[in-house]
Amino acid sequence: MIVPFEHLLVLASLLFFLGLMAVLVRRNLIMILIGVEIMLNAAGLVLVGASALWQQVDGQVLVIFLMALTSAEVSISLAMVVYLNHRKQTVDVRAFNELRG
Amino acid sequence: MNPVALTDFPFLSLVLWLPLAGTLLCLLLRHSPGACRWLSLLTTLAVLLLCVWLFIELPHAAGWLLQEDQPWIPSFGIRYSLSLDGISLLLVTLTALLQVGAVLISWKQRQHPALFYALVLVMETGIIGVFLATDLILFYLFWELMLIPMLFLIGIWGHGNRVYAALKFFFFTLAGSLFMLLALISLYLIHGEQTGVYSFALEALKNTSLTPTTEMLLYLGFMLAFVVKVPLFPFHTWLPDAHTEAPAAGSVDLAGLLLKTGIYGMIRFAFPFFPHAAQQSLPFLAILALIGIFYAAWIAYVQTDIKRVIAYSSVSHMGFVILGLSAWNQLAWEGSLLLMIGHGVTTGALFIMIAMLQDRTGSRDLRVLGGMWKSLPFFSAFFLLFSLASLGLPGLANFAGEILVLLGSFTRFPLLAAFAVAGVVFSAAYMLRLVQGVLWGPLGQLCKIGDKDCLHADLDRREWLLLIPLALLVVWLGLYPAPVLAPLSGPISLLLKGGGLP
Amino acid sequence: MDSRLLFLLILLPLTGGVFNACFGCRLPRALVALLAIGAIVGSFGVTLLCWPLAAEGTQVTLFTWLASAGLKADIGLFFDPLAATMTLMVTGVASLIHIYAAGYMEHEEDQARFFALLNLFVCAMLCIILADNLLLLFLGWEGVGVCSYGLIGFWYAKSENALAGRKAFIVTRIGDLFFTIALLWLFSLLGTVNIAEINQRATELDPVLLTPLVLLLLGGACGKSAQFPLMTWLPDAMAGPTPVSALIHAATMVTAGVYLLCRLFPLVSLSATGMAVIAAVGALTALYAASCAVAQREIKRVLAYSTMSQIGYMFLAVGVGSVAAAIDHLLVHAFFKALLFMGAGALIHLAGGENDIYKMGGLKQKSPLLFWLFLIGILCLAGAPLSGGFFSMAAIVFAAFTRGDGFLACLWGIGVFTAGLTSFYSFRLLYLVFFGSYRGKKTAHRLSPLLIWTLPPLALFGLFGGLFNLPHFYGGHELLGAWLGSTPAKELPLVTELGLLVLMSLFFVAGWLPAHLLYRNFEVEAESSWRRFLLQGWRFDALYEWLVLRPYRFTARFCFIAGDKGLIDGVVEGLGRTLLHWGGYMRQLATGQLSFYLQGFAWGLLLMVGWLLLKAVV
What we know:
The structure holds 3 protein chains of 3 kinds.
Chain A lengths: L4 H21 L3 H26 L3 H31 L13
Chain B lengths: L2 H6 L2 H18 L4 H25 L8 E8 L4 E7 L1 H20 L7 H20 L3 H22 L4 H34 L6 H4 L6 H18 L8 H8 L2 H26 L1 H27 L4 H22 L2 H32 L10 H4 L1 H14 L6 H16 L1 H25 L6 H5 L11 H19 L2 H17 L4
Antiparallel strand pairs in B: 1-2
Helix pairs in contact in B: 2-3, 2-5, 3-4, 3-5, 4-5, 4-11, 4-14, 4-21, 5-6, 5-11, 6-7, 6-11, 7-9, 7-10, 9-11, 10-11, 10-13, 11-12, 11-13, 11-14, 12-13, 12-18, 13-14, 13-17, 13-18, 14-16, 14-17, 14-20, 14-21, 16-18, 17-18, 17-20
Chain C lengths: L5 H18 L5 H26 L3 E11 L2 E9 L1 H24 L6 H20 L3 H19 L6 H32 L4 H7 L5 H19 L7 H4 L5 H10 L4 H8 L1 H4 L3 H22 L5 H21 L3 H28 L12 H4 L1 H15 L5 H15 L3 H29 L14 H5 L1 H10 L14 H6 L9 H26 L9 H7 L4 H48 L6 H24 L1
Antiparallel strand pairs in C: 1-2
Helix pairs in contact in C: 1-2, 1-4, 2-3, 2-4, 3-4, 3-10, 3-15, 4-5, 5-6, 5-10, 6-8, 8-11, 8-13, 10-14, 10-15, 13-14, 13-19, 14-15, 14-18, 14-19, 15-17, 15-18, 15-21, 17-19, 17-21, 18-19, 19-23
């Protein structure tokens, strides 16, 4: 491996926390979705790295799954964003609090 | 008749699942209420006929008369096992009988009739299941299954304060039965650890050896579920509310059957599992029962709603049943079970009659009713008969049980039994007040409002059909209870011995 | 003769009653009455037919009613001299009263209900008399109670009538409470409920237990027989139709208590204390009721109190150990009291439905025959020398005197004094009703001939009933005593006996004279608090209202409001409310904002990672 695994882990955690921050802090639904994508990709990165480290193919298989899943997820969520936008003319998450107890 | 043929055919499953099949058909036919009505009547009648046939054909032996046993969830040792002995036979027959009454009295149900009949039939399966199951998980399943139809019957078709009553009923009984679930799982685990065989079967769990403390704790867990259902003072307050708000069929089932499941649970499970704890608890049970007899009779005396009077009278009668159980001898136990049957029939009949009264006058308030004999002589005659039976008139249903209970318990608790006799006087006081308020006196205030409405129609053909068998049964149970006592004596003597008399 | 014939005694009235109850309303009135009468007369005939069976005592069983571990109660009859005598009296009197009732009720509605209940009553009464075990006896015991309840409240449209019925049922049931306890106790001691066996084995019982047992039985008898302190229901029971009062509340049901004590006499007689209490209760009630009768205004209430008083004499007789005297008085009393009640019914018709004797008067002219018949009844009640009542009452007083120690002598004194009072109120009644001028305003109803012609047989039996048990002193043979197998009364010296006789006659005259002077030409009577006190039965009703009913109602309400609604429901609902309250706090956590939840995730993650790091470092 050309890159030490530790570096990869650091990068992945940085990416993950960036994504998390985006999800937590941003109010825009699109930005939140992007945050989710970043987190997923961080996880994928770790999987690929681990796969390369241990010379096991499982991690890469999982990443392929992940990519398929992500694309499906993004298409559904974007569709829902469009729908929500249509309903309330906004993509601000604060507008959607119907589950408030 | 060949006994082998009887045991080969799964009669118990037939009795148990027939009502459920009726339920499914009912739901399929939901767009034609008439068909639902007839279907549920036919189903209940079929179950009744089957039960009566079994009652006549089966021998009066001490042990199980019929058994079915199949593995169900083998990995946990849960089996589908049903067994029938003399006690359950009688109770199942009573269930089948009262369900026919429940269907007939709701004949004019207009609001969601299909769902209503379906629920009544589900209830029948649940109650029969409780009386037949000998695997604890199966028992628990049916135990909870009874609650759900009743919850909806009260909650949807009930009167005034129905949601409160339904929830109160549900939470009271559910809270009790959760303790039972906890206890039965502990029992299962303890038994499994001791023997290596993990099983929920009644026969297996009976032989678990427990330390006194554990035994008492588990016993209390079981008993809590049962005494709430009975209901024993001070766990009874759900009953008057549930009775008052429930529709007629619900009241009939509640009083006639649901209360009996509690007693049945005690004698089938709680006492045999924990004989020493049971023996220790008997004096307390007797005292609570006595308090219940008095307390409920007193309260019944000041009620103005007829249904509440009967509800409290049920609590009082159940006190007698528990007193009999706590005396722990053959005489008293036979009396208790006989009283259960008698109470089921009389109270069921009284609730049926109250429904008829409410159909006609639109009221259950003693303060506005009165003078019904004038306009409804036949109705009133039946009402008087059942009221007299309920107050324990010799020669009618309840007396035979009551006197056996008293005779039996006098040998063990003379003082308590002597006091309990006073309960009989009190029951005369509230029942006669009820009779006075409904039948005698001038026509009630209800009638002065619009005089034309006062000439109610007396019993129609359906009502005659419903009341005559019940009346005959009340007299039969009072004058010749031998056929009912015969199947009881064997199982009871087994239970008394197996329950670990010192 | 087949001894199972005896069951016809019970089955005939039962069938008649059930048939009338089920189908009576569809039948013509005359047929209903005829059926009812036929059933009872048939029963009477069967009694005569079966009479020979009684001498030896016949036991016969139809089927087993209740049998369970050690208990065996049959539907079984025991026909011995005592039972036979009672049966003959009950069926005989009941036959006459049924015929009378057919005339009395001819214009009433609901005849079927009336006759059904009346028949069922006779059936239940015969159950009491003939039962061979205490449970069956109890069945009859409660059965007569219910029939009496239904018949007192026969005119139910007036609440007072129905309430009187209810009062009668509940008060007698308080007595039954004691009887039931005695029954339970006897069963747990002897293991049987068979009467003959209990009597046989009574000597096995611990003497200490005997007295409470006898007192409990006495309690039961007091309830049914309206003796002190459970006597308040009888005067109110007069709300029922007159034939009912005659049959149930004079001749038969109220004497069931006496019969019970006689039936169990071998047991009862073992407890000296118990016997003394029975005698005392009897004497006190006799005095109490006679004093109340003096001030009553309603004709039937006078008779009700006199019934109570006469039954007190019977209790006294049982208490001093003379069953024969008790039964003799019971029989004679049944005849003349039925006569008086039926006569009273006819008089009420004559006075146009008026109950109040102050508003009657001069009825002698309206129906002389009725006057003579009524006079016979009054003479018997007052104990006029040589009438039936005189002999039977004298026998009781003699018995009290001969067995007497100081205590019994005291009771004897009360008995003799009460005889004077009895004579006074009897003649007061007679004078007020028949003499003077008519004070009422209502016009007479037509009298059905049935109302008159059923009376003479009763008058005959009342008048000559004393001959059944005529003591040797008068040249009699104590036939009844011999038939019942009781020990003959002790022979007294001639002088004592004569002295007692003269004393009784003197008290009779002493009662009659003031009545003659005061009421011969009666106009109005002044109100006085004393009279009101007696009129209201010494205010026992008010006393019980304060002592029993109010506390009962208060406890009931207290239990309901404070116990059920307050405490139990309070705890349950409080539990629910607490949970709801806490749920309210928890609810605020569900903001509906996704980022808020995710923050939770993030902090959790941080915590977990931190924990792992900490573990790695340490």
